[in-house]
Amino acid sequence: MRQFLRTLITAPHWPTVCLTYALGTAGGFAAAALHLPLPMLLGSLLAVGAASVAGLKPLGRVPQAPQQLRMLFIPVIGVAIGGAARPEILTEAPEWIPSLIALCLFIPAVHYGGYRLLTAIGRVDRLTAFYGTAPGGLVETVQMGEEAGADVPMLAMLQFLRLILTIILVPLAFTLMEGHAVGSAGGAAVAGHAMGLRDAALLIAAAVVGAVIGVRLKLPAGHVLGPILLSGAAHVAGLTQAVPPGWLIAATQVVIGTSLGVRFAGMPKRRILDAALLALANAVVTIGGAVVLSLSIAGIVGEPARTIFLAFAPGGLVEMGLIALSLNMSILYVTAHHLVRIVLSVTIARTFGARLRE
């Protein structure tokens, strides 16, 4: 923790960081004014991403957003997701088994389909195509691809753009289906009671202790899963019914969107275009497959097709959780499926990637 704070304080150029977050905040409010879905997240991402790609250096430096600061905010989303837990969730969880089984078939199918499509297009080698189309585990798959000898810059862009495209396309799809912007009033919300000092102390403890435990135990997406588990336990036990305030969730979205947007800084525009085309082709397979499957199994699973689709869409756990929050869906259902997706994607990449190198 001491090293974490030291890096956070000393590494960035703070005037540039402040300007970057100001740009992200402005992008969020502009997106809200345009009634875009998840405006604080998408607006900040697009504004900072565009500035990064354009190579803007207003203070002589490219846009900066410390990833350590993002890690400090992400537990807020975990606590908010956990805030949807109620005692009846214990009886609902067994009903998720059919869709979890379907997910275990869906992940290898779309991974293989995306891999075959990218190799057929022919702009990347087989290893880069394989690790770049894994529908989850961005950090883990990039690391495995690097060890295997893949084209790491292209691999990182494919995985990053997979996340970005899903974050953009899925809310837009829901906006079309719902007839109004998803999360237009601040981005996301979850029902809860007013927060008192005792509630605030419990939720802060759930965020901090949960994140530490999740990371220490190396849980999938531990920095958000830990807070989900502790916050969920506190709500199921009846210790609190409060959730983080809307303004804090909106601020968290700006931090997340800004930290994603700065990743484009310094990337050659031609390589970004190539990666975007390949990632878009892969998105047709993954998102299109999620649509088809959700419509096919809705009658079996017992959840609405829109909820199943969100649970199967290969976006980030935090970002998909935000959409579930904003639409008052079964948040824990969606979260559970994304956790399984991440674990399964990494396991498949590790197992079959080794065979691909032989």
From TrEMBL:
Designated name of the protein: Ammonia monooxygenase
InterPro entries according to UniProt: AbrB_fam
GO biological process, one term: regulation of gene expression
Sequence intervals crossing the membrane: 12-34, 40-59, 71-90, 96-118, 160-177, 197-217, 224-241, 247-265, 277-302, 308-334
Record GO cellular component, one term: membrane
PANTHER family (UniProt xref): REGULATOR ABRB-RELATED
Key words, A-Z: Membrane, Transmembrane, Transmembrane helix
Organism from which the protein derives: Albidovulum aquaemixtae
Signal peptide location: none
Record flagged with keyword Transmembrane helix: yes
